[in-house]
Amino acid sequence: MTTTQPGERREQTTFSDGSVARNLLDRGDLLEMLDRAVTKRVTVICAPAGSGKTSLLRAWADRSTNHHHRVAFVSVDRDQQDAQRFWVQVLDAVCSAGEPETQPAGAPADADALLERIVSEIAERVEPVVLVIDDLHELRSSEAMRQLEDLLTVLPSSARVVLSSRRDPPIRLHQLRLAGELAEIRAGDLRFTERETLELLAASGVSLSDSGAAVLYERTEGWAAGLRLAVISLSGHLDPERFVAEFSGTDRAIGEYLMAEMLDGQPSEVQSMLLRTSLVTD
User: Fold this and answer.
1) Which of 130, 197, 213, 249 could bridge across to 160 with cysteines, CB 3.0–4.6 Å?
2) Domain boundaries, the chain
3) CATH of 28-190, one of 3.30.70.2740, 2.10.220.10, 3.90.800.10, 3.40.50.300
């Protein structure tokens, strides 16, 4: 993780290919939205790939203002089908939250016992725990999803859970919603504004006219990954205005990102269907 010092407005993001985008915007308004959201028992962040969910969560977890609670951060492994392995990962995160030297002693052998241990560990913490589960869409175990639903009902009242996914999690959240204990952050909330687009360009050292920035914003529709990939390309381009005028979703960097993050993450039968039904245009 990258720690943001007070007064700084920059962060570092690593893309799926290992490349790093530096000097990116610390989105204060969005971080404050998440601050307000976690006053609720459960927060759901749901948006497509490249919307900035993980970047938001990492930046929020790193903030010095979060020292009044402990953040247990779990990133679900791709295509995770093993409930026990998932809950061991959660237990590890809870035990080491804010205390890197702490390791769980003798994790229970079955998932139900693991859940009891997790609840016990959270209850024993002096400071409240925020359990963040990122990439929840990768959890393919119906057993683990059922247990997650159970966990939300038995956690101590001081605990908070943040679930981040490309799709709405297949668990019943209606009771929490009716009780006013559910916060939701959606794709529209994560989109960059025109002002943030200008700030991102300035923070990245990209010189672009107001009209050029407006065109870039319009063509990316505020999509975080699109803007950030465009900034990487603009940083090394001899004629930024021309690049923006010609920029489209067929830009090579955009295409590679979509292939890596969206198409490759689909089951083989879905990939085959999408490739068979896709249209090629000039």
Assistant:
1) 130
2) 28-190, 194-276
3) 3.40.50.300
Which pair of structure tokens corresponds to residue 246? 């010609």
Name the residue with tokens 């009044």.
68
Tens-binned pLDDT, residue by residue, of the chain (282 aa)? 333 333 333 334 333 333 333 445 778 899 999 999 999 999 999 999 889 999 999 999 988 555 678 999 999 999 999 999 999 999 999 998 856 555 555 667 688 889 999 999 999 998 999 999 999 999 999 999 999 999 999 999 999 999 999 999 999 999 899 999 999 999 999 999 999 999 999 888 888 999 999 999 998 889 998 888 888 888 878 888 988 887 765 555 665 555 555 555 656 665 566 556 555 544
